[in-house]
Amino acid sequence: MSKILPIFAILLLSLLLLWLLLAWDPAPISATSHDQLKLEAHPVGGEFELSSAQGPVKLSDLKGKLVLLYFGYTACPDICPTNLAIIALALRELTRDELDAVQVVFVSVDPERDTPERLASYVGYFHPRMIGLTGSAQAVANAAKQYGAAYQRSDAGDSAMGYMIDHSAYTYVIDRSGRLVEVLGHATPAEEIVAILRHHLSALG
Fold this sequence. Notes:
Elements: H1 4-22, E1 49-52, E2 55-58, E3 66-72, H2 79-91, H3 96-100, E4 102-108, H4 116-124, E5 130-133, H5 137-146, E6 151-155, E7 163-167, E8 171-174, E9 180-184, H6 190-203
Parallel strand pairs: 3-4, 4-5
Antiparallel strand pairs: 1-2, 3-8, 6-7, 8-9
Helix pairs in contact: 1-2, 2-6
């Protein structure tokens, strides 16, 4: 059974990626959608330190790489998988050298349930260039505040999940010097992400 679950998850992801590539035409999301929380504050960016399955990671450890930073959680039913799948599509359009200069960072806003190991398994289904980070509730809140990421816990009613996390769905582009340079909206098309990445990669040569 333990071997069947990863295979099933990979199959589902493959089908999602195929659908996004061939059939999806994203429409504007209604104002009542949980991902439409506005930026908590004007994002300024900055250093943070959280934990991965391989140990502590600071943003400054990634200096020299172009970073795509996203705040979400592994139990997110649709918004996070959609954004991560689109980002994965964009990464697959890059050359090997371009890909080597990019790092996607997924920060969980659900540290109660998302362990570093769970995050590593989750992001690994999308692309090996992604890492998952978490930490104490305060450490996550501090990092989110710097980037204006909004999130709040909500009751899931009779669901076995117990609770959900309503959260904003922005992707933050951090240049190779560690400076926040762009904030991308939910479901920014893969081709647009590719163009943005190449623009910033070429800026420093």
